[in-house]
Amino acid sequence: MRKRFASIPAIVLALALCLTPGMASAAELTVSAAASLTDAFKVIKVAFEKTHPGTTVTTNFAASGPLLRQIENGAPVDVFASADEKTMDQAVGKHLIMPGTRIDFVKNSLVLIQPADSKVVLKSIADLTQPGIKRIALGNPETVPAGRYTKECLTSAKLWEALQPKLVPGESVRQTLDYITRGEVDAGFVFATDAKIAGAKVRLVQEAATTTPVTYPIAVVATSKNPLAKAFVDYVAGPEGQKVLHSYGFKKP
């Protein structure tokens, strides 16, 4: 009789595991976020997964404009974080965001930087007109928030038209940063947090004034049925998420 029933405890344990809530299938969450959030959100992703065992967070980083188009075209996204209010406003206008979930969670600033080994040293934005400055990187103003902020800055300084022949547009702020760190341009505009990531590879010239505050909103995508989406938004805006973001140079909204 002992041999006959020896396997019963093992069978009971297996059934118990199968019936335990959360064990049957792992939860998945998809987050699309502005390229400048890449490093901070990678850390937040791991921390969120630890506080929600069995959850896998998939992150998708790009310029805010293309991310919005992906959502509009039906990409299965649960959370959207933009580097500007304009893109999120467009998402709201197209009914792509769940009402009541939008939060401004951090601020940033635009800066002018150069490759660290640049032989032409800039002291201000006005110096971009020097003959020695031939190529200036910026995000594409049509799709990249950092590019729109740059256009605002240069227009306000009455330099936008004069600098047109020198401008080299990138498809995201990180691509712009790559142009600068690799020395493919003489200078460029990125967010302060991106310049911090680049470290000794770049030289800070000055903070660039923008007419629009550089604030980042985050929200749950309207088509999401995932209860963890709002939890992720709250985590990002909460103490733990803010601690990570501040460590990467982001400021309170």
Features:
disordered N terminus, 5-stranded mixed sheet, D-Maltodextrin-Binding Protein, domain 2, single chain, alpha/beta, 253 residues, 10 helices, 2 domains
The fraction of residues in strands falls at 15-25%
The dominant shape is elongated
Strand order of the largest sheet: 2-1-3-10-4
* pLDDT averaged over residues: 91
CATH first level of the largest domain: which class? Alpha Beta
Structural class: alpha/beta
Task: Say how many strands there are.
Answer: 10
CATH superfamily of the largest domain: Periplasmic binding protein-like II
CATH architecture annotation of the largest domain: 3-Layer(aba) Sandwich
Query: What oligomerization state is this entry in?
Result: single chain
The low-confidence parts are 1-25
Largest sheet: 5 strands, mixed
Query: Termini, distance in Å?
Result: 70 Å
What this model shows, in words?
The protein has 253 residues and is an alpha/beta fold. It has two domains: 2-107 and 215-247, D-Maltodextrin-Binding Protein, domain 2 (3-Layer(aba) Sandwich); 110-208, 3-Layer(aba) Sandwich (D-Maltodextrin-Binding Protein, domain 2). It is built from ten helices and ten strands. It has helices at residues 2-5, 8-19, 38-51, 64-72, 85-93, 145-156, 173-181, 192-198, 228-237, 239-247, and strands at residues 27-34, 55-62, 79-81, 103-107, 110-115, 136-139, 167-170, 187-191, 202-208, 215-220. β1, α3 and β2 form a beta-alpha-beta unit. α3 packs antiparallel against α10 and α4 runs parallel beside α5.
